[in-house]
Amino acid sequence: MTIREETQELEYEFLSPYAAHSAQSRGRDRAEEPCDLRTDYQRDRDRIIHCKAFRRLKHKTQVFLSPRGDHYRTRLTHTLEVSQISRTVARALRLNEDLTDAIALGHDLGHTPYGHAGERALDEICPLGFSHNQQSVRIVELLEKGGEGLNLTWETRDGILNHPTSCRPHTLEGMIVRYCDKIAYINHDIDDAERAGILKEEDIPPAFREKIGDTPRVRLDALVHDLISQSRGKDTITMSPHMEEAMQGLRAFMFEHVYRNSAAKGEEYKAVSMLQSLYRYYIDHVDQMSGEYVSLIRDRGEQRERVVCDYIAGMTDQYACWVFNELFVPGSWKQL
């Protein structure tokens, strides 16, 4: 018996009957020989960690554009925090921690430079529309490995696709990530907003502080405990009504006071204008994109508009700015 087979047997012995067992996966689009060491979900996680799109997350905005300081979250650190919280919940509920981790690590691979401002920019200008969760799936199914994709399992791709609030994953592991994504960003964005001087703890409405806690650490602990206690032994992932109401209220507060705050978002229009300028340029000059993207159009029949979005969405904040300067700023001006 291989180590993988031993692990699969242990899953049947230890995991909840509601867990996604790796031996029962719906599989991959392309059949592969099983690994002797790792289960399919462990292989998914490892492929995501080693892919290029994952590495680029370290230079993509979470909330604050080009913050002055080393401790603000990036899209990568957000992803790691979601992974940590999600694994804690999965372990406590005896669900499949490997699948949960794979979904969490891959859920934001499709994010654009400059965070949600970049996502909005591409969605507005591209007639095909753009959403980061669908782009994340496109990355793992097509764009990585020179057009081969990562060939992940159905369960991992389902969790990545359906992590936004408006969606519903088909596994409890995916539902964990859907909740923990919000738990993570609400709390770490408050921490970053306080670091930036945009928000003070006492600015948070007393009703939320009384229900959830008066520091990011206490709030995180309270939300995680509630999620676990309300979901134990059930075939769903849920929170108590009063705690979910408080979390959604705190999320609405953050949209009003941070996510749409002029101090935090005052320069987002520049990012939107820059990415839309890049989109218009590459629609007319597709041959100036990297060869792998040109090949998607010429050799595989992919739509020009979608591939231009692929190219721009894959850029980091710094690279998008550099390309814009190269294309639109006169050379002599760059020295000023």
Structure summary:
The chain is an all-alpha fold and 336 residues long. The chain has helices at 3-14, 40-50, 52-56, 75-92, 97-106, 115-125, 132-147, 154-161, 172-195, 206-212, 216-231, 241-259, 262-265, 268-284, 291-298, 304-313, 317-328.
Count of DSSP E strands? 0
Q: What count of helical segments does DSSP give?
A: 17
Strand content: under 5%
Low-confidence stretches: none
Helix content: 55-70%
The CATH superfamily name is Hypothetical protein af1432
**Form type:** flat
Domain module count? 1
Instruction: Report the CATH architecture.
Output: Orthogonal Bundle
Polypeptide structure, described:
With 336 residues, the protein is an all-alpha fold. The protein has one domain: Hypothetical protein af1432, CATH 1.10.3210. Helix content is 62%, strand content 0%. The protein contains 17 helices and no strands. The longest helix is centred in the middle third of the chain and has 24 residues. It is flat, with a radius of gyration of 21 Å. It starts with a helix and ends in an 8-residue tail after the last helix. The mean pLDDT is 94.
Explain the layout of strands and helices.
Blueprint: H1 3-14, H2 40-50, H3 52-56, H4 75-92, H5 97-106, H6 115-125, H7 132-147, H8 154-161, H9 172-195, H10 206-212, H11 216-231, H12 241-259, H13 262-265, H14 268-284, H15 291-298, H16 304-313, H17 317-328
Helix pairs in contact: 2-5, 4-5, 4-9, 5-8, 5-9, 6-14, 8-9, 9-11, 9-12, 10-12, 14-16, 14-17, 15-16
